[in-house]
Specification:
53% helix
């Protein structure tokens, strides 16, 4: 499982990379715009925090294939590192994916709501496909089911593309796509923190500390015991 953080907030990224086993950061035009700063400055700052090896996923704005390719080449040049260009699975997007694949630029197919969209994108050259789990649920679909179908199709046709499950409202959805075998997930900072939270874990830690303190004293660590 690859864990990615779905944000452009620098403090959230620093915190996640300090605490958790992170593999990358995903952004989109909405996430970027929330920071209300220069677009390229944000991306360059993210790259400085996560390093050149971590994945950074950045989305194009154009809906024209040739312009998408221009944006992708520009971003690949100015941001660099382990960069994936996010392309939506519209008609022109699939065309752009074919062109970018031949140019050696890595692609993440985004805005996926059906397994067939994912299959088409994988065939066009996308390294990752990003189904929107909760948004599928919100239109009376089955987000986990779509992820499962994508995985089945990729295995059936022996495709190397990986599922980057996105759009979550709770930890249970993340858990279910993990059980389904999704290769990676991208979550917001709040859900990432909640993936470790459990009241009985907190209770257990407090109990350990209380029992230790009764015998060895407050604020005494194992390295301090004589």
């Amino acid at each position: 499982m690859l864990y990615l953080l779905d944000t452009a907030n620098l403090e959230s990224i620093r915190k996640a990379y300090d605490l958790y086993p992170m593999n990358g950061v995903t952004t989109n035009p909405t996430i970027i715009s929330k920071e209300k700063r220069n677009f390229l400055d944000i991306l360059k700052d993210i790259r400085k925090i996560i390093g050149v090896e971590s994945m950074l996923h950045v989305q194009v704005i154009s809906t024209n294939a040739e312009k998408m390719v221009e944006e992708a080449e520009y971003l690949n040049q100015v941001i660099g590192g382990n960069l994936y260009i996010k392309i939506p699975v519209i008609h022109e997007g699939i065309k752009a994916m074919k062109i970018l694949k031949n140019k050696g630029i890595k692609i993440t197919a985004t805005a996926i709501f059906t397994a067939q969209q994912a299959l088409m994108a994988a065939k066009a050259g996308a390294e990752f496909v990003a189904p929107y789990v909760n948004r599928i649920d919100n239109i009376s679909g089955n987000g986990i089911g779509v992820v499962t179908e994508i995985l089945q199709l990729f295995e059936h046709y022996n495709l190397d593309s990986k599922v980057l499950a996105a759009s979550f409202k709770n930890v249970q959805q993340v858990h279910l796509v993990s059980l389904a075998g999704a290769h990676s997930v991208t979550v917001n900072p709040e859900i990432l923190d909640k993936m470790l939270e459990h009241p009985l874990t907190d209770w257990s830690v407090n109990q350990f500390i209380n029992d230790w303190t009764k015998v060895y004293g407050k604020d005494t660590l194992t390295i301090n015991v004589k």
